[in-house]
Structures are given as C-alpha cells and as structure tokens.
Amino acid sequence: MNYSALLVEDSMSLGALYTEYLRAEDINVTHVHYGADALKELSNWQPDLLILDIKLPDMSGLDILKQVQQSHPHISTIMITAHGSIDIAIDAMRSGAFDFLVKPFDAKRLSITVRNALKQKQLLELVTQYENSLPKGHYQGFIGDSLAMQSVYKTIDCVANSKASVFIMGESGTGKEVCAQAIHQVGNRADKPFIALNCASIPKELIESEIFGHCKGAFTGAHNNRDGAATRADGGTLFLDEICEMDLELQSKLLRFIQTGTFQRVGGSKEEHVDIRFISATNREPWEEVKLGHFREDLFYRLHVIPIELPPLRARGNDVLLLAKQLLKTYSKEEGKKFIDFNPQAAAMLQAYDWPGNVRQLQNVIRQIVVLNDASHVEPSMFPAPLKPLAQPQTKVQLQTKMQVETTKLDIDTPVQVASRELLSESTQEAHTHTAEQQRIQPLWLTEKQTIEGAIALCDGNVPKAAALLDISPSTIYRKRMTWEEQAERSS
C-alpha cells in the first residue's frame, strides 16, 4: 500500500534529503517550505503523514499542529527541529504529535519513526472499522440494537449528505421526527436550520402562510410581514410531518416549490429562492392515499425518492427493554426517584405487550410509573390499566387451565387445538389430583410442540405473548420450530 506524506521544511537541501529518505520507504512526498503553503495543501487534500518542522519562516510548526489536530485528527504528525529540548518535545506530544525528531538524523532513524507512525495508523483504522461494524445501541436520539433499527441507521448514514427527498413512513409514535432530525444532524447541513411543520395540526387556512410566509395586509390579522418555514429553513432541512393531511390545492403549490426552489409569500408577488432539503413523513399508506385521491401522484413521486420505514415497537424485540430502562433512568432522575431497574416479571410484561402506541406509549407508561410510585425496582402491580391483564404472572398449571377453558369457548376446533385440549386436560388433571394414572405415551418433542402451538393459537398468533405465559423466551419458540421440522422430516 502506498502512503502519502506532506513535508514542511524551509531548508531546500534538507527538504530534498528527507524527500529521498521517504521515497525509499515507497511514500509519495509533497514538499513545501512555508507554514501557509502547508495549510493550503491540507485544505485541498489530507496526507497519511505530516513531517513538520517546528521553526518555519512565517509561523510556528506547533501552531500548525494544533490546527491539524482540530480539523484532521487522523493525520499522523512527526515534528522535527534543530533546537531540541524536553519542553518542546512535551509540548509537541501534548498537542497530538506522534513522535519528535531532533536534527540531524539519518535515514534509518526517520524510517523507524515513519514505520511506527504508519503501523499505529493502521491499528487505529482497524479499531474504527471494528467499532463501526458493531450494532449501534444509541444513534442520534434512537435507542435500540435490533436488526430492524440497524437497517434504519444504515439508511440514514447513506442518505444524510444527499439532497434527495426522503419519505419516512411508520405508525404513530415510532419516531418519525427523530429520524428526520437524525438525517439532518448526520449530514452536511447540520449547522443549518432544521424546521419541522405538522401538516395535521395547522388549520387549512393558515398552513400556506406557515410554509411560505405572508406580507402585511395579506389577510385579517396580518399586521406585519412574516417569514414562513421555507425562508427559515434556507440552507437546511424542511420536515413536513403528516404530509398526507395537506390540502390538495396547497399540494400543487408545494410541488412547484420543490421543483423550482422558488415561492411567493401569501399576498406577495415577489419570487423568493431558497436551498432546502425536503423530508416528509406520514403514518398512513401514501400510495393508498394517492389511489383515494387524497394525495397528488406527482407530489408523491417528488417526495418518495428515498423511503424509510420505521418498524413498530412490537417488531423490535429486546429494544423494548433497552428503551424502558433508559426512560426509567431519565425519568427517575427528573422526578427525584430511586428506580434502578425492572424486576423479572415486570420486564417480561414489557416484552409481552403489543404497544399499539409504540415508543410514545412506552414513554407515557414509564413516566406514569415513576410519578406514581417510588421503589428501587418496577413491579407488575405498578403498571397502568392497558397492561393490567398481564400484571399477574401465571404458573404453568394456571396457564394450562386458562388454555383449557378458553379452548372450549371456540366455535370451531382445529386439529392442533383438539390435541392441545386433550393434552392440557390430562396435564391439569394430573397436577390437581396427583394420581398415577398412566397417560398415552408419545414423543416428547411432539408433546412440547402441541403445547406451544396451542398457546400461540390462544394468544392469536402473538409469539412473544405466548412465550411470556409459557415462561420461555420467544427465541426458544422459533428455535424449537426449526427442530420440529427436522423431527418431522426424519419421521416421514
């Protein structure tokens, strides 16, 4: 691998000598004599190595080093001087230099130092690659390391610097505005404004003014000129939440604005031009809104360039517990409480619940628990009404009895439900009477399969809920399903 180096040395003869030393190490060298020239080169390209003389005709090499460490910390810097001292060496190392060489030095001494610097650079790059490959538990306001969220994080990283319009879809409470802010913060517009508008919360008569602004006297109450979101977002990002709620007439004006970047204020005639990145969001199915005539098809294609679909909380596995623990910690600190964790039963309840309101509902539930209670651990009895049916953990015998009773209420029994009822009836009778009556013997895996599938059926196909009631993890059920398929193949 060929490396590049920028050599900053005011002596022509020494510069030529050091250049030959470095080229012998298969390094591409650019040689400049002044600090200003070095800074100019660094603004255009970044070398792997910076060989920097401390005493330069126009400035101190230490000042250059400090600037480089701020703007390009990945560059390995080696300081050189004819006036070596311990104090100067310490200052250089504290400022971020890799090493320090005192003139005169030979090719071997420079070679050893350069090779060590490049080895350290390679190690740092490997560490960075490894860290980047790890699942992200926290990302720009999101909490969660599930595969579904890793895919969202990767998409955000890919689109952040693009000007292409992004269309975020997801149920209410999944974090669509958090996603929009993440795209803005990761991208090259992070230092510019992020302006968010909720199209569903603004009256139809005012939303055009909210987006484009208005001139004095444009309508009753318009006593002054007012900038709209388009003007305030110039250079940055405009986020239009619940875009499908926008009036059709205004959708046509928005389409022209997106196409041209120009608009007119309400009551005005002057064309204004802005540079904006558009991000839209909806909790509806946008194409269905197009087919129903509620959303313009041409606007849909303009905005739906890069779609991002946020998964509901029920599809994010253990993220529920990660989020709940972080919220518990945050709210406990805010409210002056001493909560530190959830007990096992409470944790199981969190994962068994469907969370129809997603993250927003989880936030409300944890906040309510913290405000109304004070303990070190959250217990099932502290959960509010929506989770109360899960508040009493059931034993396996109780679950079997519950399943047996509920199965008898079904109008039509499937073969699996019939087999489950027979098995559960026998098991329950044995648990209550403790008799030694011999039951029909069948393979253990089949017995287990019937019990688990019966539980899933009674939970309306909700595997996490069935797993919680059976006192096992959802992953155990998925793993056992694969084993059952293998057992069935061997038996056939």
From TrEMBL:
<keyword id="KW-0067">ATP-binding</keyword>
<dbReference type="InterPro" id="IPR002197">
    <property type="entry name" value="HTH_Fis"/>
</dbReference>
<dbReference type="Pfam" id="PF02954">
    <property type="entry name" value="HTH_8"/>
</dbReference>
<dbReference type="Pfam" id="PF25601">
    <property type="entry name" value="AAA_lid_14"/>
</dbReference>
<dbReference type="InterPro" id="IPR001789">
    <property type="entry name" value="Sig_transdc_resp-reg_receiver"/>
</dbReference>
<dbReference type="InterPro" id="IPR025943">
    <property type="entry name" value="Sigma_54_int_dom_ATP-bd_2"/>
</dbReference>
<keyword id="KW-0238">DNA-binding</keyword>
<dbReference type="InterPro" id="IPR027417">
    <property type="entry name" value="P-loop_NTPase"/>
</dbReference>
<feature type="domain" description="Sigma-54 factor interaction">
    <location>
        <begin position="142"/>
        <end position="371"/>
    </location>
</feature>
<feature type="modified residue" description="4-aspartylphosphate">
    <location>
        <position position="53"/>
    </location>
</feature>
<keyword id="KW-0597">Phosphoprotein</keyword>
<dbReference type="InterPro" id="IPR002078">
    <property type="entry name" value="Sigma_54_int"/>
</dbReference>
<protein>
    <submittedName>
        <fullName>Sigma-54-dependent transcriptional regulator</fullName>
    </submittedName>
</protein>
<dbReference type="Pfam" id="PF00158">
    <property type="entry name" value="Sigma54_activat"/>
</dbReference>
<dbReference type="InterPro" id="IPR025944">
    <property type="entry name" value="Sigma_54_int_dom_CS"/>
</dbReference>
<dbReference type="InterPro" id="IPR003593">
    <property type="entry name" value="AAA+_ATPase"/>
</dbReference>
<dbReference type="Pfam" id="PF00072">
    <property type="entry name" value="Response_reg"/>
</dbReference>
<keyword id="KW-0804">Transcription</keyword>
<dbReference type="InterPro" id="IPR058031">
    <property type="entry name" value="AAA_lid_NorR"/>
</dbReference>
<dbReference type="InterPro" id="IPR009057">
    <property type="entry name" value="Homeodomain-like_sf"/>
</dbReference>
<feature type="domain" description="Response regulatory">
    <location>
        <begin position="4"/>
        <end position="118"/>
    </location>
</feature>
<dbReference type="InterPro" id="IPR011006">
    <property type="entry name" value="CheY-like_superfamily"/>
</dbReference>
<keyword id="KW-0805">Transcription regulation</keyword>
<keyword id="KW-0547">Nucleotide-binding</keyword>
